[in-house]
Amino acid sequence: MKSSVKIRLLTVLLSCSIVTVISAQDILLPPPVKQGGKPLMQALNERQTTRTFTGENLSLQQLSDLLWAAWGINRPEEKKRTAPSARNIQEIDVYVTLQSGLYLYDAENNRLKQIHNRDIRSLTGTQDFVGKAPVNLVYVADMGKTGKKEGDKIADADLWWSYANCGFIAQNVYLYCASANLGCVVRGLVPKEKLAPEMGLRSNQVILLAQTVGVPQK
Description:
The structure is a single chain. This protein has helices at residues 3-24, 40-46, 60-71, 160-179, 192-199; strands at residues 27-28, 73-75, 80-81, 92-98, 101-106, 111-116, 135-142, 183-187, 205-214. The chain has 218 residues and is an alpha+beta fold. The strands form 2 sheets. The protein has a 7-stranded antiparallel sheet, with helices on both faces. The chain has a two-stranded antiparallel ribbon with strand order 2-3. Helix 2 crosses helix 4 and helix 3 (60-71) packs across helix 4. The longest helix is centred in the first third of the chain and has 22 residues, at 3-24.
């Protein structure tokens, strides 16, 4: 084999390995299990807030089920979701902070798209348990989808529907956790000024709430 051919082959192989590494940073989730669980009335009866968690991680199946329940696509032909959205704008993005990094939930492809590999769980809240719990969800309103450009002023009135939409998602998480024997707590005390730069958010992306999920400590 000529040296030039060897070099080209080596270049191709190296390129393939780089692509594999880059792709491996994202997490492809297993298909969500959409049957089973506790009956709705039982889940409502057992819904509660939890602030003490074990150090146990959630499985990929649990993550997939959790995120689908929160804000997954339940009508693929219309790309509509498990939670309502005013005028179907679907401006809420669910970011997932894990020990392995920060991810954006891609509902259409059922994957976690890695933003970076830094552990910023402790920055998503002010309570001690936040940095130790396995999962913290951060709900972000992408106001670009409502017509707000970077640098535009975003008033409280602009966020009314987004807060409502976010509340629907957070309640879905509560009900899933009750059904799956997990614990969660929604949190409004989020250091947004510190967290937003760590998440790489634009000025027209607004952090609304965060929600901690994990295995409850008995």
